Amino acid sequence: MKNYNYQGTYVHSNRILHTPSEFARENLLYLQEIGQVHARQPHISTHPDLASYLFIIVLSGSGRLSYLGEEYKLSRGDCVLINCKNEYFHESSDDLWTIRWIHFYGPTAPGIYRKYMERGGEVLFHPETMGDFVNCWEKLFELAASDDHIKDMRINEHLSALCCLLMAESWHPESRIPGKERQSLLEIQKYLKDHLSEKITLTMLSEKFYVNKYYLTRLFRNEYGLTVGSYLLQTRISHAKELLRFSGLSIEEISERCGITPLYYFSRIFKQVEGISPRDYRKKWR
Fold first, then answer.
1. Across the beta sheet with 62-67, what order do the strands follow?
2. 74 class by beta-carbon count within 10 Å (0-12 exposed, 13-18 middle, 19+ buried)
3. Which DSSP string corresponds to 83-150?
């Protein structure tokens, strides 16, 4: 893969254009372009209406981003994630910037980005430590320039790592939960796991742990990305799968131990979640 260095009036850039395999396009997160640019003069860059997601790291200097009618001031240490189907442009200020960028896409990318935004991910954020993002960019740049025979698989791995970093840094950055409240959530989480067979309601939890149920709902969603009810259902179904595979209990007994009763309701909910009945799941996995 050729590394394109460009010395121009407005920028000095170093970029790699990557053409993924058909397999990668159909199945993986894949790289489209990766590079670094140092502005020689203030300039504007825009590529709207692309099937692409753009991640930017500002290494030095400053500039601005216009995206979906909003203006964002960018400076050293800032990161950006946008959907390039939308109208946007970014430009360096007189304090000429150096930025690194990644254009990527894939069949799962829209869903990942949609979840990112639903959970409170921001267009612009400032991570506490830049090192992990810089390391991820460097690994992807090195891979894009390589002749690795499984390059697309490795690129997928590191783009997945980038998405994990984005989620960890940007989900609800305004609501970091204090230590005391986080400890309460851990106690509630443990209680849910230890009492799966029992009827559990928000009202009961709020009374037991001395927390307003509406505040509990917001804290729980911010911390775990799920409502208490959704988390409890996931945990119950996971426990049911363990018992179906590794115990001799009847399906009715399993439904009672998991707190999803009566049996017909357990069977219906299990099939909604897993796409298969409890009986067929047991046959398939044992």
1. 44-45, 88-92, 62-67, 70-75
2. buried
3. ETTS-EEEEE-SS--EEEEEEEE-TTHHHHHHHHHHTT--SEE--S--HHHHHHHHHHHHHHTS--TT
Q: What is the pLDDT of residues 93-142, one digit of tens each?
A: 999 999 999 999 999 999 999 988 877 789 999 998 899 999 999 999 99
CA angle 6–55–225, rounded 5-degree value: 170
**Distance separating alpha carbons of residues 14 and 276, to the nearest angstrom:** 51
pTM over 0.85: no
pLDDT in tens, 44-96: 787 778 999 999 999 999 999 999 989 999 999 999 999 999 999 999 999 99
Per-residue CA distances from 212 to 115, 189, 204, 217, 222 (Å)? 27, 16, 11, 9, 15
Pairwise CA distance, residues 56 & 54, whole Å: 7
Q: Determine the 3-state secondary structure of 224 from DSSP.
A: helix
Q: Which residue is associated with the tokens 């025979």?
A: 149
199 burial via Cβ count (<10 Å: 0-12, 13-18, 19+): exposed
Question: From its phi and psi, is residue 145 left (phi > 0), alpha (psi between -120 and 50) or beta?
Answer: alpha
> Is 170 in a helix, a strand, or coil?
helix
